[in-house]
Amino acid sequence: MRRTDRPRVLVVDDEPTLIQLITHALVRNGYEPVQARTGRDALEVFTDDIPLALIDLKLPDTNGLQLAENLRKLSSGTQIIIISGEGEIQDAVQAMKQGALDYIAKPFRLEDLMAQVHKAVSLGSTLREVSQLRQSLTSTPPIAGFLGVSSHVADLLRKVERLAPLDSTILITGESGTGKSLLARTIHHASPRASQPFVAVSCPSLPSELLESEMFGHEKGAFTGALQRRIGRIEMAEGGTLFLDEIGDLPLNLQPKLLTFLQDRNFLRLGGSKTVKADVRVIAATNVDLEERVQAREFRQDLYFRLNVIPLELPPLRARPDDVEFLATQYLVRLAKGKSPLKIAPDAVRMLRDYPWPGNVRELENVLERAAAFASSDTIHPEDLPATLKSSLFTPGGAVAAQSPGMPASTPGTSSVELGQSSLEDIEKLAIIETLRKCDGNKAAAARILGIAEKSIYNKMQRLGMRTQPVA
Description:
By secondary structure, the protein is of the alpha/beta class. The chain has helices spanning 16-28, 39-45, 64-74, 89-97, 110-139, 151-163, 180-189, 208-216, 233-236, 255-264, 290-295, 301-307, 322-336, 346-354, 360-374, 387-390, 424-438, 443-450, 454-463; strands at residues 8-12, 32-36, 52-56, 79-84, 102-105, 170-173, 198-202, 241-245, 266-268, 275-277, 281-286, 310-313, 343-344, 379-380, 399-400, 417-418. A five-stranded parallel beta sheet has the order 2-1-3-4-5, with helices on both faces. Helix 13 (322-336) packs across helix 15 and helix 18 packs across helix 19 (454-463).
């Protein structure tokens, strides 16, 4: 059993000093080295979850070229970097022709080797992800899809049925945690492109300097460390669907290039001069108001129009309480993993229905996972649910009990603000304030409780006009 989840790198070399130097450098840079002194040892310790192998050309029992070929047969996703000595450059070039990613000649600097390792592992992980995606699409049935029993979900699925066969661009809007990614996958699996890849790009999770390369790919030499051509997510999605998650966070400098792609489905790789054409369907999603971003000059209006061809609004969970018990039951079945799922007591169901779920479906799943872990019987009772649901913030009747800083003052003589009389912004603001207070102002912890990303809590606070410094 593996002790870490760090990327594994196979090092095959018969020089003890060199293999130890490489091993120490790998450990310092966050990798898990796997050592082998001979080709035979390498085949014995090799597993297909190793994204990179560093192979010396001269080994005691075999030629490095032959070993590289054997490893590639065992795992096509494993990248190979050849370590060559003086006078062996020609053999190293031959290895690249046979499929090796790159080579490095002795003597070399460990910094140079690590730069190649970083790129190779990243490429290997991406190719493995695409391979697994293609395999899952051809060997397993489609996912269950976006589920619910409310009229909101029924109306949404009727729209999906009509628009899935089209190639039109779709813009899914909805709060964080409502299931926008799942809805996008449901559309893909219902479309004629279902047998082709579904490739997602999370706009806020990638640094802006890497996002262009990730999306459009790059040519060799496009920037420092670009050691070979790399295809981007658009090309990976060829014939299938490209899902642009949280498109509202796309940097302004990349928006014109995405606009050009949406207009004619052509693009240039970073550092390239040859136009690449891609046959992909684009689905974008956002939890922010793009029209407000347009007004604030943070999002291009022409790009917004290109994305908003077919809009789909995903309602928050608090707007469809009929779905709460159904989704909770479905999630408990998944948690049981084939065993008898936990049941939910009627009074616990009422608590779940009355809670406004600021973190939506993602928060519901987090709550149920914690409740299942602490349940003392085969049934979840109110005492098994987290304090968030039982706090003075939300009473069982659905009233907001305690007024907090930042909430509009209630009328004289009123001790509570009824949810039905409060705006969604007021409710959301109060939920954030009270959760931050419980977490001593720790926004990362508050985000986890609310079931949203840490960046999202900052965005929400700014949108709601709240101060972002720690809560006293």
